[in-house]
Design goal:
CATH superfamily of the largest domain: FAD/NAD(P)-binding domain
Strand content: 25-35%
CATH class of the largest domain: Alpha Beta
Number of domains: 3
Radius of gyration: 22 Å
Number of helices: 8
Shape: globular
CATH topology of the largest domain: FAD/NAD(P)-binding domain
Number of strands: 24
Largest sheet: 5 strands, parallel
Structural class: alpha/beta
Oligomer: single chain
Distance between the termini: 43 Å
Bound molecules: flavin-adenine dinucleotide
Helix content: 10-25%
Strand order of the largest sheet: 3-2-1-7-18
Length: about 375
């Protein structure tokens, strides 16, 4: 079938889906290209949402214009797929036929409220941020559940707004992702900026409806605003019964192909069958969007299906990481000083691979990638 006749449908309208769309056109697909996306706010980037958009100085989401790609855009939920007939059905009952399908439905925020509890704040969409921003405008106290990168970015926004914030987790901040050395360094900076940390000995529950506080370690902590940043869950409900998804997300091979012919997947919804699980970060979604698009056209991808660069911004400190995680033990300090909030760090792993971290120090990502690659030791 020529590319002009091939109908490609992308479900999911964020970075993985939009990257796939752009790559499809760049690689010569001149046939029909349909994007089904559920977000009425359209195409926008999530990373700024928890950073300057949440801080509230009037910043809006960073949006993308895809009008040059000649896309048929359907703003609706995909509710099911028929892999025999090769159609995706949307909530309004429309059947959209495909020759190749790219699943890019990402993830949604994991919620912890009980079924009868209203008013749980999470942070995943632009609409979530608008609602949270409004609450923060009048808040004096906040509790953030979850001390991962998202929870700490929300805490940073609270500090910037002069709101007294407590972050609750069963683990120390960012320990699971970044290991003890960086966790301690980040906690020290946060505490110096008056962020309080509360260690929970069991999963935290929310109190009130609307939610007005948390219950943790036998005591109740009330706050003007409570925000849950407790991880994400892959958006696979619409794939039920197709064999495309399982409890972990959508398993893909190195070409981002799923177990079902002509169905590919990319981004937060996907995980490499040979890897440890989903890696829900921006650069990974970009890489997989490109690979899924190439594979949907039967072409060789121009990049690998994983990219282990990610970044965060905590209390004005930019942290960029390239390489495998978590980070055990002490790093080699290549430049600067962690205590002074500006350092270039290197971790060497037992398998010969290296992780480079720019901790509050301005370094281009290309340089970090080069350092990680060049300092890796072959164990063969
Ligand atoms: C607030 C925030 C800050 C972040 N900051 C960073 C950061 O600093 N650095 C970093 O590396 N990563 C960061 N991330 C992670 C990064 O944004 C994600 O990895 C990336 O957005 C994943 O893109 P995606 O396209 O796979 O999925 P998503 O961004 O989850 O998008 C999926 C899209 O599919 C749509 N969709 C879902 N189900 C359906 C359906 N059934 N039918 C139709 N459409 C559907 C959704 O509406 C959504 O728009 C952040 C994430 C968030 C939420």
């Amino acid at each position: 079938m020529s590319t002009a006749q091939r109908r490609i449908v992308i479900v999911g309208d964020s970075i993985a889906g939009c990257t796939a769309a752009r790559e499809l056109r760049a690689r010569g697909h001149d046939g029909a290209l349909t994007m089904i996306g559920a977000d009425p706010d359209g195409y926008y980037a999530r990373p700024p949402l928890s950073k300057h958009v949440l801080k509230g100085d009037g910043a809006e989401a960073e949006t993308w214009d895809l009008t040059d790609l000649d896309i048929i855009s359907i703003v609706d939920l995909a509710v099911s797929v028929n892999t025999d007939r090769r159609t995706v059905t949307t909530a309004d009952g429309t059947d959209v036929p495909y020759d190749a399908l790219i699943v890019a439905t990402g993830a949604s925020a994991r919620r912890i409220a009980g079924a009868d509890q209203l008013g749980e704040n999470v942070l995943r969409t632009f609409a979530d941020v608008r609602a949270l921003r409004t609450e923060l405008d009048t808040a004096r106290t906040a509790v953030v559940v979850g001390a991962g990168f998202l929870g700490l970015e929300v805490a940073s926004a609270c500090v910037a707004r002069g709101i007294a914030v407590t972050v609750v987790d069963v683990d120390p901040p960012l320990r699971r992702l970044l290991g003890p050395f960086l966790s301690d360094a980040i906690a020290a900076r946060a505490e110096a900026a008056s962020v309080q940390f509360l260690r929970a000995d069991s999963p935290v529950s929310l109190v009130g409806s609307p939610v007005s506080g948390i219950e943790c370690a036998g005591r109740t902590l009330e706050a003007d605003v409570v925000v849950t940043c407790a991880g994400d869950v892959p958006e696979t409900g619409w794939l039920t019964g197709t064999g495309i998804a399982d409890a972990r997300g959508v398993a893909v091979d190195e070409c981002c192909a799923t177990a079902v012919p002509d169905v590919f997947a990319a981004g937060d919804v996907a995980y490499l069958r040979t890897g440890p699980g989903r890696a829900p970060f921006w650069s990974n979604a970009v890489a997989q969007g490109k690979v899924a698009a190439a594979s949907a056209l039967g072409l060789e991808p121009t990049c690998a299906p994983t990219d282990d660069y990610f970044w965060t911004e905590i209390l004005g400190l930019s942290i960029k990481v390239v390489g495998p995680l978590p980070l055990d033990g002490e790093p080699t300090v290549l430049e600067g000083s962690v205590d002074e909030g500006s350092a270039l760090l290197q971790w060497s792993h037992n398998d010969g691979r290296t992780t480079i971290v720019a901790f509050g120090i301005k370094k281009p990502v290309g340089l970090l990638r080069r350092l990680a690659r060049d300092s890796a030791v072959s164990t063969n």
